[in-house]
Design a protein that fits this description.
Blueprint (H helix, E strand, L loop, with lengths): L4 H10 L9 H9 L3 H13 L12 H4 L1 E7 L6 H9 L4 E6 L6 E7 L2 H15 L4 E3 L18
Antiparallel strand pairs: 1-3, 1-4, 2-3
Function: Involved in heme d1 biosynthesis. Catalyzes the decarboxylation of siroheme into didecarboxysiroheme.
Keywords: Lyase
InterPro entries: AsnC_trans_reg2, HTH-Siroheme_Decarb, NirdL-like_HTH
């Protein structure tokens, strides 16, 4: 996808933090010198093109309660169905297909470890697949942002 100037500005300015206010898209528009409808339309174009996966917070798991990285070995013909089932949980984020025996990876976050275990058990019961459960032992903070720069 060829990104236009507004898309580049949105990504550069807001990928590490949206305004925390009642009208965040309006605030973003004011910062960028455009209209709220332009911001929303640009974000919709990015999503439709597959260039935007989500808009939302990323929580420090230790403050949220408990989390784990989980994976499933899903038969190729069931991958879409199982991914859709996994994504039904609001506790799930970063649900992605990978080229590996364990080909569906996701992060679960919940109020406590028992909550996480209950969801993993439900998923195993519903799908017939045993989740690989990899709770984080040590946190490493890295910047996952991508600066697009002022090249446009």
């Amino acid at each position: 996808m060829d990104l236009d100037l507004l898309a580049c500005q949105l990504i550069d300015r807001f990928q590490h933090g949206m305004p925390l206010c009642p009208e965040p898209y309006l605030e973003m528009a004011q910062v960028l010198g455009c209209s709220e409808s332009q911001v929303i339309a640009c974000l919709q174009r990015l999503e439709l093109a597959g260039a935007l996966s989500r808009i939302g917070p990323v929580f420090d798991h230790s403050r949220a309660g408990a989390s784990t990285l989980a994976a499933l070995a899903v038969p190729a013909e069931r991958l879409h169905q199982v991914a859709k089932r996994v994504s039904q949980y609001p506790e799930v984020n970063h649900n992605y297909a990978r080229e590996h025996h364990y080909n569906l990876w996701f992060v679960l976050t919940g109020p406590d470890r028992q909550h996480i275990e209950r969801i993993l058990e439900e998923l195993e019961h519903d799908t017939g697949l045993t989740p690989l459960d990899l709770p984080m032992l040590t946190a490493y903070r890295i910047d996952l942002g991508f600066a697009l720069g002022e090249s446009r």
